[in-house]
Design a protein that fits this description.
Layout (H helix, E strand, L loop, with lengths): L1 E6 L4 H13 L3 E4 L10 H13 L5 E6 L3 H7 L7 E3 L3 H9 L5 E5 L5 H13 L6 H15 L7
Parallel strand pairs: 1-2, 1-3, 3-5, 4-5
Helix pairs in contact: 1-5, 2-3, 4-5
The protein binds D-ribose.
Length: 153
């Protein structure tokens, strides 16, 4: 498994800890985030991780900024990306089971490192359930593709 990880200037420490944590489990981690605490615009990392996942250069992605919001918004603008910002392991797990998220995002100013590790563990350990959930994911893709949703007419 290969994971792309990205962050902004407020999440350097948490990025490094999560990267080391994943590597300790034998996962390959590609760091495309900043390693500096100089002000850094989070869309750059959000885009880079999203691009890698969309292009299948990584299996999935982890994004961390102050809240996890801005960086996930940027990632979600890339076609095929389903990035979820979450602060709890339950949401992380369900976001994979029901929404087939391919990027998980969280906030270094919002949660602590132990919760971040639990989020990553639950997310990576969960399986997409498909079935009825695929209908909804297809609808999301239709909105992305056409800026319209026939079912909402
Ligand atoms: C940076 O100050 C902050 O805005 C950023 O880390 C993030 O929280 C944005 O969503």
């Amino acid at each position: 498994m290969k994971i792309a990880i990205g962050n902004d200037h407020v999440a350097v420490d948490m990025k490094n800890e999560i990267k080391a944590y994943l590597e300790s489990k034998g996962i390959e981690v590609v760091n495309v985030g900043t390693d500096s605490t100089e002000r850094f615009n989070y869309p750059v990392s959000g885009y880079k991780v999203a691009r890698m996942v969309a292009d299948k250069d990584a299996d999935c992605g982890v994004l961390i900024c102050g809240t996890g919001v801005g960086i996930s918004l940027a990632a979600n603008k890339v076609k095929g990306i389903r990035a979820c910002v979450c602060s709890d392991p339950y949401t992380a797990k369900l976001s994979k089971q029901h929404n087939n998220t391919n990027i998980i995002s969280f906030g270094a100013r919002v949660i602590g490192i132990e919760t971040a590790k639990m989020i990553v563990d639950e997310w990576l350990g969960a399986e997409y359930e498909g079935g009825r959930h695929q209908t909804r994911i297809d609808m999301i893709a239709e909105i992305e593709e056409t800026q319209h949703l026939k079912a909402a007419e």
